[in-house]
Amino acid sequence: IAVNCSSVQFTKSDVIEDINEAIQYSGLDPRLLEIELTESLLLQDGEKGIQILSDMKALGIQTSIDDFGTGFSSLSYLKRLPVDKLKIDQSFVKDLDKDSGDAAIVTAIITLSHNLNLTVVAEGVETQEQFDILRGFKCNEAQGYLISYPLDIEQFSLWLDSYREQILQKVSGL
Questions:
Q1: Can you name the residues that pair with 2 across neighbouring β-strands?
Q2: Which of 91, 85, 119 is nearest to 106 (CA)?
């Protein structure tokens, strides 16, 4: 389960206690929880942000940097962040098949991520062509309308049952 964390939530002094309480209340295995934080949010909080991310990791929670590539991140800072995933902002994926600059940025992010042992997720994948290009670039995961439009829990259950085999093929293709 991936959850976006806002700057208000992230900067609360008891954010770790809140997350831990939610895990305990729900009974969710913390390894199945992913907290998504924006690149710009992580740049604001420096050492405090690193400590909060470390505390999340200690709980077994996965963390990801959302909208990567839009916040002018310092690469020396990035290598210190205890995160599991980088999510490539959809603005780079949108014209991937038409813009060589976007393709260069995406391949650079994927290469950098893999060298830092991070999983890469491409956001905003809407066409098979984008998906195929990303697969060729060795992107690990994709999200976007090509996979599915937003669904409520009942729709998701039906969708998952109907497309389980197709999903496994698409996911294993990346």
A1: 34
A2: 91
| pTM (predicted TM-score) | 0.82
- Tokens linked to 116: 């830092």
Give the three-class secondary structure for 4.
strand
CA-nearest of 88, 90, 67, 61 to 1 is: 61
Closest to 123 in 3D by CA, of 148, 90, 147: 90
Average pLDDT for runs of 10 along the chain of length 174:
85 87 92 88 77 92 87 73 92 93 94 95 95 96 91 87 72 60
d(CA 59, CA 134): 32
Using an 8 Å Cβ cutoff, are 104 and 120 in contact? no
Could you give the strand order of the β-sheet that contains 119-122, starting from the edge strand earlier in sequence?
2-4, 34-38, 62-68, 85-88, 119-122, 141-142
